[in-house]
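Posting this for the archive.
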Amino acid sequence: MKFYLRFKETLEERKLWSLFIYLFFGGLATIVNIVTYFICIEWLFLHYLLANGISWVASVLFAFVTNKLWVFHSKTEGKLDLLVEFAKFIFYRVLSLGMDMGVMYVMIDLVDTTNLTAKIITQIIVVLANYLFSKFLIFNQVKIKNFEANDER
């Protein structure tokens, strides 16, 4: 426990804790995505694009909860705020899904790479894009509200 607290304190001093914790939970979301994808491919014998869509849904639901609660510590004041936040999250995840599907198609059908290679490369691209979307466009409403409150004084 002491190691964890020292590690966290060091990263917080360097302003890297939120990035680290995002990458940690992003890594877990990636594992959810890849495991779900290969279950759909290997056990359910689904087409890779359908398997990719199903794995996307599973990882997006996982990511919303972890990003909201543990990465960005987002607080919503009511059900409407929560719904708006979730809608923004889904909107930007659909954009990254388009990137995911496009890169998967290019790598598998045009470049002829393996499923695993294509999936790993797309997940790196998607995790980076999703961090930027989440940090600057989705879970930043608390900062905006605080800024607006200070503006009125």
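The helical segments are 2-13, 17-42, 48-71, 79-110, 115-138, 141-151. The mean pLDDT is 87.
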